[in-house]
Specification:
five-stranded antiparallel beta sheet; globular
């Protein structure tokens, strides 16, 4: 076995390898070695990855030449963090527009592409992910290794309940389950009536683990109750999520754990960096997410200067593949907001940790009367209220010169049947809770149970109507 347990570039994992069933770790040395020793190995790997990308990808050669960086200058991790420019998603889209379909950061011949995935393109040009055959095996190994850390073992049944399309998360979970020698149960999501069928299947099959999005797990529990089924009877040991914030938000996480009687693990949300954006919790502690630095090197950086912030501070994650050769991402800017720490982990792994997971995307933040607000803060506050029915919409409006925040929220079915006085008390409770958490007054409207659309994929709960106000105001100013 090579140094650091099969750690090579390009990767050459033994596909037959499995740890002993009672082992806490997939790779004991790599996962528990002193952080300083690992960082020396990471520096060597970064030197290899940067040389490879410079020689193989015109995209990196051009970008680094413009920045005055050459891989030969990489002598320390500080050199990497200060000299290598970040890559933004707009850079990837521009590269693919100029060099379709995969951009000039593709480092392998087209004929070596094994899987094609990508973004949906609903907010602009879609981004295509080209994954080589060896990279696909590498992804499967990394997912299996992280899933092992969450307590999954060969023979466990793992239900993958996410859309099987271009979305990378569902395919990564499936590949990891297969590499783990688990029993893969790829149910998918998205078809009409699928949720009702899924709860029946879960009740029958009793899988050990479930993968999807937090909002879909909550929706699924509602469907189960409509079908006269108790989600706890599914027998799940764990649910692991990516695709949207929520699984690290205390109110959301606690609600799902209580509903299913199982542990919840947050696995991040950036498809370009799969597996699971390289972060997931361990069986011994599901508080936040570990940064598996020897799979994907993670820096938490100042969102303006893109320089690493000290442990304990907030910033935006910047990611670098250490094992990928087809479309390696080197200092990819996530646009998310998090906080990281470097302290002892209950599982014994010596990785930094994001104790509160991902707060949300920086561009999801909105400002109301000078206060910066993240949708996840509202999610957490509502899920801590016993009368909350599980769904809401955040509507941002403008009344004359003043921004207003309106929350349209569903009460629990039982509360709704309790009469107008109970509903009014709940409305006041929601308003008081949000003013305490957010620091601003919030208008609250109570919606009928089930009136707000559910989703089996990523929830979209923010409606910003201020653009409508600006457009109407502009028309009035023009006299049209």
């Amino acid at each position: 076995m090579a140094m650091m347990e099969q750690w090579s570039f390009p990767t050459q994992y033994d596909e037959a390898y499995l740890p002993p069933a009672d082992s806490r770790y997939w790779f004991p040395v790599r996962e528990t070695m002193p952080a300083a020793e690992r960082e020396r190995a990471i520096l060597t790997r970064l030197q290899e990855v940067c040389r490879y990308a410079y020689e193989s990808a015109p995209f990196y050669r051009r970008k680094w030449d413009e920045a005055g960086f050459h891989p030969s200058q990489l002598k320390t991790l500080e050199d990497f963090e200060s000299r290598v420019p970040v890559v933004k998603k707009i850079d990837l889209r521009s590269s693919q527009a100029a060099h379709p379909p995969f951009g000039d950061y593709l480092c392998v011949p087209d004929e070596e592409v094994f899987h094609i995935h990508g973004t949906s393109g609903t907010t602009g040009r879609p981004t295509a992910f080209a994954v080589g055959r060896n990279d696909w095996r590498t992804i499967a190994n990394a997912h299996a290794r992280i899933m092992w850390g969450m307590g999954m073992r060969p023979g466990d049944m793992i239900c993958v309940a996410a859309v099987f399309s271009l979305y990378m998360g569902s395919w990564g979970a499936l590949a990891g389950a297969e590499r783990l020698h688990a029993r893969a149960f790829p149910f998918g999501a998205g078809a009409p009536g699928m949720s009702a069928r899924l709860v029946q299947w879960l009740h029958t099959m009793k899988p050990a683990a479930f993968y999807g999005t937090p909002s879909y797990a909550i929706h699924l529990s509602e469907v189960a109750r409509e079908e006269k089924l108790n989600p706890r009877d599914f027998g799940l040991r764990c649910l692991f999520f990516s695709g949207e914030p929520g699984a690290s938000v205390p109110g959301v996480k606690d609600r799902i754990e209580d509903t299913y009687g199982a542990k919840v693990y947050d696995c991040g949300s950036m498809a370009e960096m799969s597996p699971f954006m390289n972060v997931a919790a361990s069986r011994e502690s599901n508080q936040g997410m570990l940064c598996w630095q020897d799979i994907i090197y993670t820096e938490v950086c100042d969102p303006v200067k893109f320089q690493r912030v000290p442990y304990g501070e907030r910033g935006t994650p910047v990611y670098t593949h250490l094992e990928r050769t087809s479309q390696p991402m080197i200092r990819l800017l996530s646009g998310d907001l998090t906080q990281w720490v470097n302290e002892a982990n209950p599982c014994g792994r010596t990785y930094p940790r994001l104790p509160q997971g991902i707060f949300g995307r920086i561009d999801d933040m909105f400002t109301i009367r000078g206060e910066n607000i993240y949708p996840s803060e509202i999610d957490a506050a509502l899920n801590q209220l016993p009368g909350y029915g599980g769904e809401h919409r955040i509507v941002i409006t403008r009344d004359a010169a003043m921004d207003e925040l309106l929350l349209r929220v569903e009460p629990a079915e039982g509360l709704h049947r309790s009469g107008s006085e109970a509903i009014e008390a709940f409305r006041r409770e929601v308003g008081h809770k949000l003013q305490t958490v957010l620091g601003i007054r919030t208008k609250v409207e109570i919606a009928a149970p089930g009136s707000i659309a559910r989703t089996d994929f990523k929830a979209r709960r923010v409606i910003d109507d201020r653009e409508v106000f600006r457009s109407l105001n502009a028309q009035l100013q023009r006299g049209t």
